[in-house]
Amino acid sequence: MIGALIGRDLMRALKGGGLWLPLAFLLLIAALFPFAVGPDASVLARTGGGLLWIAALLASLLPIDRLIEPDREAGVIDQLVVRGHGEGAILLAKLIAHWLSFGPPLLVAALPAAALLKLDAHTIAIVEAGLALGTPGLAALALLVAALTAGLKGSGALAGLLVLPLAIPILIFGAGSLSVAGVGALKLVAASSLVLIVLCPLAGGAALRAGRD
Amino acid sequence: MGLDLDLAAGQSALIAGPNGIGKSSLLRIVAGLLAPFAGSVTATGAIALTDELAALDREKTLRAALGFWARLDGATPDSIDAALGDLGIAHLADIPVRILSTGQRKRAALARTIISGADIWLLDEPANGLDAASVDALAHVVARHRAAGGIVLAASHMVLGWSHDAELTLTAPEEETA
After folding, report:
1. Helices A155-176 and A183-212, interaxial angle, to 10°?
2. Exposed, middle or buried, B93 (CB in 10 Å: 0-12/13-18/19+)?
3. Which residues have C-beta within 8 Å of that of residue A55, sequence separation ≥ 6?
4. Rounded distance, CA B161 to CA A126, Å?
5. Which of the residues A13, A89, A120, B109 could staple to A18 if both were Cys, CB 3.0 to 4.6 A apart?
6. Order of strands, edge to edge, in the sheet holding B151-155?
7. Among residues 37-96 of chain A, which lie with CB inside 8 Å of chain B?
């Protein structure tokens, strides 16, 4: 079931612009930032890494209302549960599909974005490593909040308010890895991601079950 | 006030009652989507549910949308066309789900249940939106399913085109109507 659901979700995300949206979003922010703060290379290089992290975090919010609600509304999740598949397994499959549609494009987009921000090779390597470790956590957080808010009116705005505070640890550790903390902060990014990845199927599954009553 | 229902292979039951009395909720309890407040449900064999939600991807063709469920249920692609033919919508197989009419979508959801090969069919208002010919076709499919040892539990406020071994009419408790 998990493989079939990953394939289906991934195809739907690609057709719905899931691949291009985070990519274009990140590039747009990186292109606008020098206009806003001026083309001073040293300022850009000092702030660019943190900016990429903020852009990645906001990009993870973009597809949040497409992750769970359409499938809940169409009865797809009901049908999977009737067939004996657990909500946790459904969310795990959706997590993998969501990350595949959003993580790798973001990592690719970060390269030209880093060039626009005049980051040096060392900083680029740390940002890429941090994003590779952090985006699974951001994907899990987006999916968890999507499951919690599925079926509510105005869930998009509510989801943003719920995600941003919870994403702060990843943002702090991720941006921290660019300064003195280095590799130690990357380990904390990975740890935060792991917690969210484990939490997402458990808490999200409970939310979907509770939402049916 | 309680509720007791036993169905053996090949049998069919109808849940009747006015709108909002809980026919759909009862089916969802049997399907395992809701937990009963008291009592238990025991089912032997796979369950398939057809309710008002088609659970078919709108942007895909009908065949591709049903194909996702067929793969999950381990059914062959041939069974998709066979089920569409049974319900008289074989000509819609290459049409996107989003432009199907209400009745056509209902038949597509019923086709999903046929394709699943499940032993127990839970049909929530299966005749809603269907024309007379489609109701006949559905009765024919149900008869074949029961002849093969399948069980059908339908909830409807309408007359369905097949006989029932048991009929359960849900009524509001006395104190609520008084």
Report:
1. 160
2. middle
3. A25, A26, A29, A30, A113
4. 68
5. A13
6. B47-50, B120-124, B151-155, B12-16, B166-169
7. 73-76, 78-84
Alpha-carbon gap: B65 to the closest alpha carbon of chain A (Å): 10
Global confidence as pTM: 0.92
B97 touches chain A (CB under 8 A): no
pLDDT in tens, chain A (213 residues): 889 999 999 998 888 777 888 889 999 999 999 999 888 888 888 889 999 999 999 888 888 888 999 999 999 999 999 999 999 999 999 999 999 998 999 999 999 999 999 899 999 999 999 999 999 999 999 999 999 999 888 888 888 889 999 999 999 999 889 887 678 899 999 999 999 999 999 999 999 999 887
**B52: how many CB neighbours lie within 10 A of its CB?**
14
Chain B positions in Cβ-Cβ contact with residue A76 (cut-off 8 Å): 55
Q: Are A189 and A130 in contact (CB under 8 A)?
A: yes
Within 10 Å of residue B16's Cβ, how many Cβ atoms?
A: 18
Tokens of B103: 């009745």
Interchain contact, B33 vs A79, CB within 8 Å: no
Which pair of structure tokens corresponds to residue A53?
């992290």
Cβ neighbours of residue B98 closer than 8 Å, sequence gap 6 or more? B58, B59
Task: Spell out a b/e string for A121-158, using b for 16 or more CB atoms within 10 Å of the CB, else e.
Answer: eebbebbbbbbbbbbbbbbbbbbbbbbbbbeeeebeee
Taking only the tens place, the pLDDT of each residue in B29-77 is 999 999 998 899 999 999 999 999 999 999 999 999 999 999 999 999 9
